[in-house]
Amino acid sequence: MATSEPRAAGGDQDPNSANLRPPTTTNEYAWMHGCTRKLGMKICGFLQKNNSLEEKGRLAGQKNLLSCDNSDRDARFRRTETDFSNLFARDLLPAKNGEEPTMQFLLEVVDILTNYVKKTFDRSTKVLDFHHPHQLLEGIEGFNLELSDQPESLEQILVDCRDTLKYGVRTGHPRFFNQLSSGLDIIGLAGEWLTSTANTNMFTYEIAPVFVLMEQLTLKKMREMIGWPNGEGDGLFSPGGAISNMYSVMIARYKYFPEVKTKGMSAAPRLVLFTSEHSHYSIKKAGAALGFGTDNVILLSTDERGRVIPADLEAKILDAKQKGYVPLFVNATAGSTVYGAFDPINEIADICEKYNLWLHVDGAWGGGLLMSRKHRHKLNGIERANSVTWNPHKMMGVPLQCSAILVREKGILAGCNSMCAGYLFQPDKQYDVTYDTGDKAIQCGRHVDIFKFWLMWKAKGTTGFEQHIDKCLDLSQYLYNKIKNREGYEMVFDGVPQHTNVCFWYIPPSLRGMPDGDERREKLHRVAPKIKAMMMESGTTMVGYQPQGNKVNFFRMVVSNPSATQSDIDFLIDEIERLGHDLTLNVSTAGKKRAMREPLEFLTSSGPHRLGVVN
Amino acid sequence: MATSEPRAAGGDQDPNSANLRPPTTTNEYAWMHGCTRKLGMKICGFLQKNNSLEEKGRLAGQKNLLSCDNSDRDARFRRTETDFSNLFARDLLPAKNGEEPTMQFLLEVVDILTNYVKKTFDRSTKVLDFHHPHQLLEGIEGFNLELSDQPESLEQILVDCRDTLKYGVRTGHPRFFNQLSSGLDIIGLAGEWLTSTANTNMFTYEIAPVFVLMEQLTLKKMREMIGWPNGEGDGLFSPGGAISNMYSVMIARYKYFPEVKTKGMSAAPRLVLFTSEHSHYSIKKAGAALGFGTDNVILLSTDERGRVIPADLEAKILDAKQKGYVPLFVNATAGSTVYGAFDPINEIADICEKYNLWLHVDGAWGGGLLMSRKHRHKLNGIERANSVTWNPHKMMGVPLQCSAILVREKGILAGCNSMCAGYLFQPDKQYDVTYDTGDKAIQCGRHVDIFKFWLMWKAKGTTGFEQHIDKCLDLSQYLYNKIKNREGYEMVFDGVPQHTNVCFWYIPPSLRGMPDGDERREKLHRVAPKIKAMMMESGTTMVGYQPQGNKVNFFRMVVSNPSATQSDIDFLIDEIERLGHDLTLNVSTAGKKRAMREPLEFLTSSGPHRLGVVN
Predict the structure, then answer these.
(1) pLDDT, tens only, B179-203
(2) Which residues does chain B have within 8 Å of residue A588's beta carbon, measured at their own beta carbons?
(3) What is the ipTM of this complex?
């Protein structure tokens, strides 16, 4: 099928030659997603009527739209000539005679999705087709986001599906490097489609027997990877790393001050939590939400690579004790969000043991490295943690959402969160009700996040995850080696990155001779946002940036996407240079004045901005 | 296609005649999901070799397996003869030449899923094929849940997908009444498939432009439905009603004691929360998690229909104040979990205004009634609430998960939860960053829960949701009318239910003449669990039960599934009677002794078991 299709112009299989770059290769745009003959023509007609705006992109789109008319699928993909314009949601199952239109409709949707999948891996496709909020809200090209009282036809619904994908971001594209979660794993995708079709809930074995068992077995495997004896312990999949981290703080509090559950925080002394100034902001959010207060989340100093300095932890513990506070909890980050730093867990664990503190390891980003024999040493000591956050939806490429909170002590999750002991989840069922896990969670209903992950593990094996992780780390080292001494680049910290995070400034030629100082810093601060904006407008690639501590905006490159290759890394470098080469960055008069008066004040304070980028 | 297929034996379209009942109609079982020719034969072979166990069900399955060989799909569904036994995950995209196997594999998965969808709506299919945890863990019929180091072939992965569905529960089956969330909406399903394919995250406009806007517009529509002027306010989709309720407590605390965010609960006086004894247990969970303590969640008395007695609220507020506590927050439930009761919001709002308390309405279950002109009066006064929980994944049939927390005051979510003001979500982007909503949430990454709901709203219109809701309420009234005076039934409370919850005891003939007393109560307490267990073993239907207050176990029937009809209600009644007719319920000697000594002690205390069933 697709392999025998005429490929979209520019869709050369060699990634090096498939460099989508406006404006010279406009005709190579191939962002159109699958469309049926009828719908394609309809859209084409619309476009032809409206081609005054954004002419170039539109014409390119039109070309592809028209080509839908007589190509793009073989016999197996051809749908019957269903007229969806006269069909509505009410005609689908469970309607009488609803089976046929239901199957036709779902197949049409699948056609849209499989075309999207194909294009996602095609480097001649844009990563995104950027529009501002007001443009989308105005209903660009007839894409109307407003909801109404009356139903739309299924034809319109299919158009809406296409438009939704068209104006979205291809997070699985080989050149999408913007977040810690990227890639589009086909097995994971299939798993998620099945999960949606099963449409059930994790709270009881009764309605999710298979998924509940899969969760138990998978959590046990993860605990084995951590190194807890026989994989014993407890755990849950939660709706993301922030919630997993919140669980860790809750159970630490329950462990030491169980009466807080019934009496509230007034039953405990003034508790303090410790976490790195480079750690994820969710520890602070948990501190705020759970009633500790952010002032009682004490930030630890780090070395130049962003790793906690154990002596600073001990000093701050002693300081807190002296002030009458009670240290409760230490978070060690395994893979920080910006630098990808791994805190020295063993040294932190020694201190936690000495002072009897709960040790949590936030391995949301770095936990995946446990799957790699080559890299797992970076988490040495994790087996001494009381709890661990590990997000397979980050480094392991599992579709969103998939985050686990793992706990060494069995029963403490239920102790902390259960409300109704034996009565809530009826004890008089015919099966072993210890499999009803709902009361361990702070949620009631809980989405099935396990199946896609379980299925990927089955399909790839532990070794498959290992290869994926090793490859991503290799790629980031390739990037590091390539730019560390390259003209126009400055590394944010020295040495080979511990994770796939490579942090760097691009210095446009106009700044290269300039002496260090406020003006240069102010100008440099504006480079990454400007290049990023141009990237997004071009749709060629996406990479994150942020300031950190007293460092002005820099790029944070991360690789978790298995479809990325060295050629994509090369492309990224070329693209940054192409877009940034001519940046002049005139400092406005106001800016100049500010530069003299208050030199990037926010970058010199040690405030919460250190907690940086989202992920 | 499917309409012209020979239907599975017993698959009569008339729901009344399609009553799947063992043991007389064993041959009518048609639980086999779609299978390819090769795989089908392979499984059949396996079954033929192993048919000593569970002979009857196995043979029924085998019959259907064999029939896969020469039927069940027309040309459009026929896949090429891909040999998946030699293909692995590593052969799929992004592998070189991975496009063809990727498409073949995804189509094979879709075939499994569409067959599952078809069977789900077919009343000759079982609701579930029950097995105990130890049976599934032992690897029943070769279904091996264990994970290994080495990859499995795609053939095995497809078998695993089929098995996962086979041993699961069909929550979309017309006779699945077990949870507040049921049904399988085709548009919602398509929406969820697309969401998984897009695989992005709600935290920034940058990577979820369309979804972020859809969320904003949909939340605004929901606020309009609530009745807040111009739909102004704020909100978020959260991972379920429990988290939405937790948000409401957090923002109430922030509104009155913003310093708790930085200083912790020690900065506030001893705060108390009020909620009905019939309310969902998540308010108590929030109280525990957020540092209030469950003792400071004061339960309000209800009338015999489960509705809060406003005078009791006022009395308890005064009592708390007298004791030096500070009343903060009142939760009014709109549609309680067990009785479906609607608290009198206006009267509660009067009291909240009088004492300056935050009013939250937990409409997780009942919020959907706002879409119905006929039933929305039950939520009169909701426009006076400060915040509202509303789960479209319950009464509105949206696939799991889809829950909204809606807030009248704009900006308070961000005030409460943001950590990093301008620095976290970089302010120097090229677009209007007020669309970056991530910092309003307690999560960092946030799953895209909006699209399926938005798409359903587009496809059904507000009127479509209204029809769905009115139909479900009509059906439950049909059930109520049918059993209220029927021999062998006792209603748990008098009068037409406010929501679709119909709560009743089935009294087997052996208990009908028995005088009220501990022995009868003890026996009656065991009726619902026994019938439920038999239902699950038969796989014919599922309905929930629980005790409540001092009432022994009773059935809680709910209807939210649009595929249910009057015939399914009739079926349920018949099935309860069939399974329960001959129950003798001998009280064991030990039981008799206990009945004399401690008459169902747990049912006479007023403990947390009142918070009842999960949902």
Answers:
(1) 999 999 999 999 999 999 999 999 9
(2) none
(3) 0.88
